[in-house]
Amino acid sequence: MYFNWEGVMPAVTTKFTDDDTLDLDMFAVNIKAQIDAGVHGLVLGGTLGEASTLTDDEKRVLIETTVGLADGRLPVIINIAEQSTKDAIRAADNADKYGADGLMMLPPMRYKSTDYETVTYFETVAKSTDLPIMIYNNPVDYKIEVTLDMLDQLLKLDNIQAVKESTRNVSNVTRIKNKFKNRLKVLCGVDTLALESILMGADGWVAGLVCAFPRETVAIYELAKAGRIDEAIRIYRWFLPLLELDINPQLVQNIKLAEVATGIGTENVRAPRLPLQGPERERVLEIIEQGVKTRPDLPDYKSL
Description:
Blueprint: E1 7-10, H1 24-37, E2 42-44, H2 56-70, E3 76-80, H3 85-98, E4 102-105, H4 115-127, E5 133-137, H5 139-142, H6 148-154, E6 160-165, H7 171-180, E7 185-188, H8 194-199, E8 204-207, H9 214-225, H10 229-243, H11 251-261, H12 278-293
Parallel strand pairs: 1-8, 2-3, 3-4, 4-5, 5-6, 6-7, 7-8
């Protein structure tokens, strides 16, 4: 049941054709770019993956395709974001059946569960599967916080092993490390706090803009872990205006526009999402164009 919850793990976007079917050709282009850049895992079906719009069969196809592309070189994680415990158990079973290596789990969707209900939900699903689990703690967007006391209860289960820390409070990295030491891996889930979180001891980064800029993202992580902080900061300062596109209600559209600019994606989203329009589109394009124009030279980060 061991799983190495460390490194850069892209929350990959789901690619769609003009006819609103899965675009597996462009999906493969992006996944290969992520692997070539040296990412450490791949997360499917998260917010960026437009999970709420995907059918069960589409999730199966995405898992099986990604497992084939990864070819054992790095783990494939699928997000579980369901409304009922029964559906979450079924999703975990399907993930295992289709070849996923791990799960990222959100609290129940739509219903604002109590602390007791939330812990029971996670426990029940975890007991139903042997797959390792990363709890996704994002009270800003999903209105339910998984507190330290709740995590303490959940860690009685061996396959709950990591937390995606998205409270937007970087001090939580230290709080978690102080309380749990190495019992719980911490992965930053907020692009604009990634380097800060890594420097405070986060084990990894579930990243968004990595979808368009995989090499720069992995370089920041590897340089920081190697103690080459000034070099990491230089790249991170260039990256920040782009990273801020991730903390926006239209993050999917923003990041898909960035993927177009770097040649590893398309702008197609699934309704009710629609491509950006008007002044906001121009604003985002200006940020992306400036970022592409000034992309920094990278050291040989893979050899660190």
